[in-house]
Amino acid sequence: MKNLFVKNATFLLAVMTLLLGSSACNDNGNIAEPSIDPPLVALNYDSDNQDSPELPGATYEGAVKFPEEIMSTYEDNLLEGVYIFTQDLPQTATIKVYKGTLAGAPRELLYSQVITDELSRNSWNFHRLNRTIELDGSDLWLAFKFSHSDNLRVLGCDPGPAVADGDYLFDSSDSQWIKLSSRTANEININWNIRGVISP
């Protein structure tokens, strides 16, 4: 397995091999994914949590984007909440929901809520939106913004491989939305543990 560290600003990858293996995230015991019962529907790309890439102190947003071709299926449904997996606890944490895409980045912020005090370490965490969001078929971005001052592994990931829109990472050092796999020359190839919960 590998301990993954993404260097701030330049995003050079330093990989320290601990055990033989090729997983993109260290084995975290495969903590069971949350159960979402009908008629609720999970909107996600990821599989079970595997671990979390280590990031240096800064402010980030990890996000998954669901394009129109997926969201057209859920037009007029309601986004009820968001699941995320957190390993280490950040100093601040916010759930954000956007719609639309402009120049490869989220276009319109629909929802933002600080959830720092709601989080548990090494766990799936569910945030029920303070107000449901009616889906209109536009691109939907589910994002988790977090800040920390030390090297931490905060936002959980699956073992990969990354799907087309499953690993966006905004970094305050360059203010760009770039896929983590692109930032690391495909050395980190995962999907974020971020899931929407939709009701019909």
Walkthrough of the structure:
The protein is mainly β. It has helices spanning 68-71, 180-183; strands at residues 2-6, 13-17, 41-43, 58-66, 78-86, 92-102, 105-114, 123-134, 140-148, 168-171, 176-179, 194-199. The longest helix is centred in the middle third of the chain and has 4 residues, at 68-71.
Record the strand order, biggest sheet.
Answer: 7-6-9-4-10-11
Low-confidence stretches: 1-5, 7-24
Q: Report the sheet with the most strands, covering strand number, pairing sense and barrel closure.
A: 6 strands, antiparallel
Order of helices and strands: EEEEHEEEEEEEHE
Quickly count the helices.
2
Mean pLDDT: 88
Distance between the ends = 41 Å
Number of strands: 12
Task: Record keyword descriptors for this entry.
200 residues, six-stranded antiparallel beta sheet, 44% strand, globular, mainly beta
Summarize the structure in short:
By secondary structure, this protein is mainly beta. It is built from two helices and twelve strands.
Task: Note the topology.
Elements: E1 2-6, E2 13-17, E3 41-43, E4 58-66, H1 68-71, E5 78-86, E6 92-102, E7 105-114, E8 123-134, E9 140-148, E10 168-171, E11 176-179, H2 180-183, E12 194-199
Antiparallel strand pairs: 1-2, 3-12, 4-9, 4-10, 5-8, 5-12, 6-7, 6-9, 10-11
